Predict the structure.
Amino acid sequence: MIMISRSTIMAVAFGCAFVVHPANAQSLDVPVMEYASDDLDTCALGEVFGLKSDGDGFLAVRSGPGSAFTKLDELHNGDRVWLFEQRGDWIGILYGANEVSCSPIKKDRIVPYPGKKGWVHQKWIAVIAG
């Protein structure tokens, strides 16, 4: 018997049970979307900037667009991220990805590229391409 949940996988075989916790599993409360647009790029490249060394020193990556959502990770000055959608002051991002195509798409979709996804406050992001 195999039981699968979002955060753990449990397998029971031959009377033995074990639990596997996926490495670096992320659970977004609000998925990051890539939107179709006629002849326009669907994303841009950004860079974290302006974080003060005497402050927290990191930009929190959250599971949704707001500070009330779960903190998933931390980014630092100079880290590069792919920017997809914006909701108020929050930007849906992808990072840790090698190749991303920002070419126009025909239908809206959840960002399909491998890598980490989340939401960051736009105050600390500079658009560097796109």
User: Anything to note?
Assistant: Residues 1-25 have pLDDT under 50 and may be disordered. The two ends are 48 Å apart (CA to CA).
